[in-house]
Design brief:
about 500 residues; alpha/beta; Alkaline Phosphatase, subunit A; 2 domains; 4-stranded antiparallel sheet
């Protein structure tokens, strides 16, 4: 069995056709969403022959913590934040690629071939740059976001707000890449993945990991796609390609806010269009007969929810943590849906199961193949009763798919970073010396507003945007979910100091 994983960064579930079913966003994600429909015909085409999971939740956020969840099958946010793979991580490529006694360039017919195609520059930079190292091979598509690629002393088009930010690098790179749709990073990622399949599909039981930065910022898709949602296109004064990750009214006009949302929706459309090339390759090579194909994201983003735009800021609300997940298996679940609760950490166990590899000890994820084979598999037998989501140092979210608790930390309780690696990404997070397997966090950046430190209880079936806080009205439900969170942390063997930090006894 071959396994292909497609990971598209920062993709909201309500922008995907298999979840919105042609309905406007404000009828799916809440009344604070725009009243437009985002067409994704290729995702619809894929879901028609695959299994669509209705209750997938991310895990560790944002980008690189989510990837460590996927690469190791264990939640990162409980012990540390953004950083590289640890030396003793049993990362997924290492489980599949040639034996450690061989060089990366010497593999025989009995070895699994693992390959990475990506334009995600964070796999190389920002203190996290070793995620590519244990693949049999990789293809790094240059030029996206702050990729330090071109340096030529030239003039180039760049929105004025982006000129003095890290996006300056992106627009400098884009000058050399070209402005056609096929020149875009997302197009080149899917094209190069399709080309790899053409040349390598005869490998037996290969693993292909496609990590597309889109629809992550920068949001600068072709204007023809932007005008599907905003007739002004790029004729918006002061537009920038990157939202400010804040309550939007603090830093932009309503016209600029609408432009951000329209350009994000257009990026999703562009991603879907380019993914079609890969599905065409599956059709032509008939890979449907011997391959598992997983489509997923790392997390969503605020899109007007709670008056915010961008990631971070506050709790892992539905628009950020409730994510699309679609899995194709040659023999089971075709065109079906599943209601079991799953998380991104389950990809690790699922890939190993599909490729006949043992699951290392201490993993938090479970294989999804039993659930794909049998929709009646109970949660206790094939998935979980609760999902947990969080960002290191911030609140923890626990949900059973309906009831959700966002449990904030005690800002005065100690916080520890369980790694010898220092924090190279989080600004404002100073770490003490490495003692007894951990570092004390000396300076935790304060929350931006009171909501981030408010206990938040919601019932998603009635309130998908999680705007109504029921914590004061339903103390018994609050006690129940706090007890479930405590038990979950104990089961996961999380650091015991988290029970105190999150006031869980």
């Amino acid at each position: 069995m071959n396994v292909i994983v497609i990971l598209c960064d920062t993709l909201r579930r309500d922008h995907c056709g298999p979840y919105h079913h042609g309905r406007p966003l404000n009828q799916v994600g809440g009344a604070d969403q725009p009243a437009w429909v985002v067409p994704t015909p290729n995702l619809d085409r894929f879901a028609a022959r695959a299994t669509t999971f209705d209750h997938c939740y991310s895990g560790s956020t944002p980008c690189m913590p989510a990837r460590r969840d996927l690469y190791t099958g264990a939640y990162e946010f409980l012990t540390r934040g953004w950083g590289p793979l640890e030396d003793d991580d049993p990362d997924l490529p290492r489980q599949l690629s040639p034996r450690p006694t061989k060089s990366l360039h010497a593999f025989g017919p009995g070895d699994h071939v693992s390959y990475l195609v990506t334009d995600h520059v964070c796999l190389w930079t920002n203190g996290s740059g070793n995620y590519h190292m244990n693949y049999t091979g990789f293809d790094f598509i240059r030029g996206n976001q702050e990729d330090p690629w071109t340096t030529d002393p030239i003039d180039f088009a760049c929105p004025p707000p982006d000129r003095n930010s890290k996006l300056e690098r992106y627009f400098r790179n884009k000058h050399f890449l070209g402005k056609r749709e096929q020149d875009s990073c997302v197009a080149r990622v899917f094209d190069r993945a399709a080309e790899w399949l053409d040349r390598n599909h005869q490998h037996r039981d290969f693993y292909l990991h496609i990590d597309s930065y889109d629809p992550h910022e920068p949001w600068d898709p072709p204007e023809e796609l932007v005008k599907l949602f905003d007739p002004k296109g790029y004729d918006v004064p002061g537009w920038s390609s990157h939202p400010p990750y804040s309550p939007w009214r603090e830093l932009m006009s309503e016209e600029q806010f609408n432009s951000h949302r329209a350009r994000y929706a257009a990026k999703v459309v562009l991603m879907d269009r380019r993914m079609g090339r890969l599905l065409d390759t599956f059709d032509r090579l008939n890979l449907w007969d011997n391959s598992v194909l997983i489509f997923m994201t790392d997390h969503g983003t605020y899109n007007g929810d709670h008056g915010r735009i961008g990631k971070g800021q506050s709790h892992e609300v539905d628009g950020k943590c409730h994510t699309p997940f679609i899995l194709y298996h040659p023999h089971y679940g075709h065109g079906e849906r599943r209601s079991q609760i799953i998380q991104n950490v389950d990809v690790y166990a699922t890939v190993l199961d599909a490729l006949g590899k043992p699951l290392p000890q201490g993993r938090h994820g479970i294989s999804l193949l039993p659930v794909v084979r049998d929709a009646a598999v109970p949660r206790s037998g094939g998935s979980r009763d609760y999902a947990i989501v969080g960002q290191f140092g911030s609140s923890i979210t626990i949900t059973d798919g309906a009831w959700t608790l966002h449990q904030p930390p005690d800002p005065d309780a100690p916080l520890y970073w369980y790694s010898s690696h220092r924090s190279r990404f989080y600004q404002g997070m100073e770490l003490g010396p490495f003692i007894d397997g951990r570092r004390r966090v000396l300076d935790v950046a304060p929350a931006r507003d009171a909501e981030a430190y408010a206990t938040w209880l919601t019932y998603r079936p009635n309130d998908p945007a999680e705007l109504v806080n029921l914590a004061d009205q339903l103390p018994e439900k609050l006690i129940e979910l706090r007890a479930a969170l405590r038990q979950k942390l104990i089961e996961l063997q999380a650091p015991t100091e988290l029970l105190t930090r999150f006031r869980l006894g």
